[in-house]
Amino acid sequence: MNQTTRCRLVPVTERPPSIAAPGDHPFLKGHEMTCLRPTTILPTLAAGALIASATSADITGAYFVSYQVTAADFDGSDVTVNVQDIYLSSDDAADTALNVFNFNMADTGQVNYFQSFTGTGWQPTNLGGPFDTPALRLADSFVTIGGFAQNTIAPEQAPGSGAGTGLDPNFGGNGAAAPGDLAGWYNGSPPSLNGQVGAVPEFSGDLIGLGVLVGRFTTLEAGSDLQGGTLEVTWNQGLGTPGQQAGFTIAPAPGALALLGLAGIAGRRRRG
Question: What's the whole-model pTM score?
Answer without folding.
Answer: 0.76
